[in-house]
Amino acid sequence: MGLVVQKYGGSSVADAEGIKRVAKRIVDAKKNGHQVVVVVSAMGDTTDELTDLAEQVSPIPAGRELDMLLTSGERISMALLAMAIKSLGHEAQSFTGSQAGVITDSVHNKARIIDVTPGRIRTALDEGNIAIVAGFQGVSQDKKDITTLGRGGSDTTAVALAAALDAEVCEIYTDVDGVFTADPRVVPKAQKIDWISIEDMLELAASGSKVLLHRCVEYARRYNIPIHVRSSFSGLRGTWVSNEPQGDQQVEHAIISGVAHDVSEAKITVVGVPDKPGEAAAIFRSIANAEINIDMVVQNVSAASTGLTDISFTLPKTEGRKAIDALERAKGTIGFDSLRYDDQIGKISLVGAGMKTNPGVTAGFFEALSDAGVNIELISTSEIRISVVTRADDVNEAVRAVHTAFGLDTETDEAVVYGGTGR
Questions:
Q1: What is the pTM of this model?
Q2: Residue 279, burial from CB neighbour count under 10 angstroms (0-12, 13-18, 19+)
């Protein structure tokens, strides 16, 4: 049997009983003949609690020291899990991200993986051990500082290790039974998907689906790593995310893969921008120089009388203050009139590779929103996705309306959410 990488989220290892349950599942995989590498998140809400503690001590914690603090959560999980496995009669060794060979750039709190050199992991496996790796963390290539990969970075750690170790599969264990056609916390009648293409999963993840991190899916696509999303609370088969269907799964795409939503973004409108070449470039260069990622962008038609236009874009709420400051500094160069900031928005996205060959999908999407009384503020499309921005208060109702309109509601069992965090 081949090598398997398993990742367990915070809800799966939230307490001693959860850790013992996970240890038994890992030992079962070992008994089935697999070499097993496990990536763990911090227990429960540990990361949030440590972040809150840091902010009580310092309003703006230093990035390097915050990374040193936050990585302690995963180290606690890995050590406890290794102890639990040993109590079941199997050998396990725990490794920090640095010891596992996860090499990153030097950007604290949201580092990117440059390389993975898992020599010590290989040695542990060759000696018959189960390797337990602290997720979410690595070591910078130049300064050798501890770094973190940003929220949900344990998913990325797992897929990166799977690629470096040439694993057969990367199993992502969470608190739901797989990838659903919508968030089952919002749509109880959401259906579990047996197989979804990496391209569709990328769009869902980028649109707000929380079950897999976008960077993790991107890494899996680059290195052709199949992902199996499962629940650590049940023995049910989950969702396969891969370039090709696994086993007897359907080859033909469904028209719609799912409905995703995101309420973590804000909208900035740059009012009164001179409508001439170079202005938009100057706006987004100032944003890029502040190391802020943006999502949707819309530019209005300029007013003939003034020659001015408005440009709106969305970005993470956590970056809002930094973006406003960057634009204010560039105001003299760009020459816009004012800025408007709105963090009470939500994004709803319809995703499916079959959309591009099925007329009427776009009309059906907007009709469902209209029937639900939901007003649209921004629209963005790709070949396999339609996204709109609405008021945050309308998001849940909009998701349920669109899900029902496209026949995605299940008539049988409601989706089970075993934990409460979604990771």
A1: 0.87
A2: buried
